[in-house]
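During the second half of the funding period, the structural biology subgroup turned its attention to how the target accommodates small molecules. The most pressing case was 4-nitrophenyl phosphate, which had performed well in the primary screen but for which no bound structure existed. We therefore specified the complex as follows and requested a full 3D prediction, including the ligand pose.
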Amino acid sequence: MRILFVCLGNICRSPTAEGVFRQRLLDAGLAERVLVDSAGTGGWHVGKGPDARTQLAARRRGFDLSALRGRQVTAEDFQRFDLILAMDESNLAHLQRMHVGAAGAEVDLFLRRFDLSPAEVPDPYYGGADGFDQVLDLIEQGADALLAEVRARL
Ligand code: 4NP
């Protein structure tokens, strides 16, 4: 299975989701069976590591995001991945505009897929430090639900 997480900048939310979900897969012994990646709908941070505030909040919970580098979503991603999970409605709408034709990846809103509330992971970039912890709280819940789906599908 191949899963891509998408946000706006690929330096806060989606790299967090990539790092957290990869750790969940490692802990479950499923890392060899699922490919995980992340990308942004925008291109401002291509080649950059995750935001320092994102890395700090993640490291406090044991997730090392330092090796990740930003990239932008491409048309090929819709063929390369089975499931593309957007962090918010704006990211989802962007993906749906790119994804013309029914073939290829299933595109969905990450938290809403699992009936979690809130349905979106809020953009923490212009907010305070609390926002980064909230991102992790939401993503850890989503990652647990996604792991259950992956187990059922494999
Ligand atoms: P992300 O957060 O989409 O979670 O990576 C953002 C990062 C950068 C910007 C916006 C959101 N930006 O405008 O540069």
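Two results from this model are relevant to the next phase. The domain at 2-153 is CATH 3.40.50.2300 (Rossmann fold). Helices lie at 13-28, 52-60, 77-80, 89-98, 110-113, 130-153.
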